[in-house]
Design a protein that fits this description.
The protein is α/β, with parallel strands linked by helices and 307 residues long. It folds into 2 domains: 213 residues, Rossmann fold, CATH 3.40.50; 62 residues, Alpha-Beta Plaits, CATH 3.30.70. It has 11 helices and 13 strands. Helix 3 crosses helix 4 and helix 8 crosses helix 11. The two termini are 36 Å apart.
Length: 307
Amino acid sequence: MGDGLVQARDLRKRFGGFEAVRGIDVDVAQGEVFGFLGPNGAGKSSTMRMIACVSPRTSGSLQVLGMDPDREGPRIRARLGVVPQLDNLDTELSVRENLEIYGRYFGLPRRHVRAKAAELLEFARLTERAEDRVEPLSGGMKRRLTIARSLVNDPELLLLDEPTTGLDPQARHLLWERLYQLKREGVTQIITTHYMDEAEQLCDRLVVMDGGVIVAEGSPAELIERWSTREVLELRFLPEERPAAGDLERYAERVELLPDRALLYTADGERSQVALHAAGLRPLSALVRRSTLEDVFLRLTGRTLVD
């Protein structure tokens, strides 16, 4: 199947009569940061669990680190690092003990584990809290510790399930710095996230999943170029003065009317705004911004809430 760290062909996962993953192809190259995006129920978590060798595939082919998870799951897991969506630290232990005891699960020598724990405490900026219990730490500190713990075995592949969910902006940016450092050190990463700015910042390539299938694939810049326009003009009108979509279409490549605003997808937002003004359309406010991965995501998966 080639030299990729993760390779899947026609990968499927069923739970009874429900098919959560419906025949996807995935290739993750060594050293890259690869992302899975999609709404709830898209099949991201099921795919990640198959890659992590904790959920067997129903059909299709899958290789992780050149091995078949069905036959060599323990060997693969020994070379993975996993950051779950919810922290599962031992809250009664100290920060340092969480690292050292976890390292012993991999059969690593005590001296090596102690040295590695000190290195990871520095990496996670937790050296000063090394002897503190985990339970009273802030959410950002716990998340940094969870990521540090996932690195105790020097993994070749790091799986991160929504690594910054629930964190404040400062903690998120610090974690981004840590993950970027790992990328520079050659650690391959697979990330799921609901934050589109996070995917743009971290991912070299990504796929958008919806309904168990891949609906788009590429780098963030490629996806924006393919599925959106260079800029978006956001307009807000008084309810009684809001024009119909047909009245706005001449000023943009695509128009989307939302309850609170109109979105005009255009190559030049300022030019569209001038043309609107010349035509006598006077919005309460107008904002020109660049297209983002969120625009792509919503176009591909819709704005309807999925439970």
